[in-house]
Amino acid sequence: MNAILEELMLLVVPVLQADIEDNQNLWERDSLIIQLEAKQIDDVEEENHRRTLTAEPMEIQCINCSTTICKSKDLRTIQKAHHILVNKEFADRLIMARSPIPAFQEEDLKYDGQVFCSNPECRGDLGGVCEYKSLEFPLLSLKRLRFVKSDGQGACFKQWKRVACYIAELTLDDLREIVEERRANM
Predict the structure, then answer these.
(1) What CATH number was assigned to the domain covering residues 59-184?
(2) Which of 80, 101, 119, 126 is the most exposed place for a label (fewest CB within 10 A)?
(3) Residues 93/157, Cβ–Cβ less than 8 Å
C-alpha cells in the first residue's frame, strides 16, 4: 500500500508544484492589474478635481474665530506635501512659537514649533513652524482653516488634495524673492 501511495505522490507532487508556481504568477498579474486600475481611478479623480479648481484666490480664515489669515495665493507647497505661508504681510495675524526640539527633521526640512491665531479672544492652534533651507515659515494645518470664496461661501476640507483652489509649489524664484524681502526688512 505504501509503495502505491509513494508512486502516486511522485506523480502528483510535480504537477502540484507547477500549479502553485503558475497560480503565483497569476496572483502577481492580478495584483498588478488591480494596482493599475486603482492608479487609473486616482488619476481620473485628480484630473476631475483639477478641473473644478477655482482660479480666483480664496480667503483663508481661522475656523474658531473667522479671522482672516491669508489668501490662497499666499500658500505654497514644499515637496507637494507641506503647505506653508510665504507672504510676510500676514505675520501680524499669526503668533509663532519655536521649540528647541524639532518634532520632525529631514535634510532641508524641520518642524519645530506651533502657529497660533493672533486674535486675543481665540489663540487657536493653526499649525506648526517649518524651517526649509534655513528659512522659517508658518506651516498651516488644514483642519483648523476655512476657505471662503469671494461670494462668501465657505468650506472646510479634510485633505489638502480636496481644497477647491490651486496651491503652487514653492520654486527657487519664490525662495530668492523671500530671501531678498527678508534681507531688506532687516
Answers:
(1) 2.170.150.30
(2) 101
(3) no
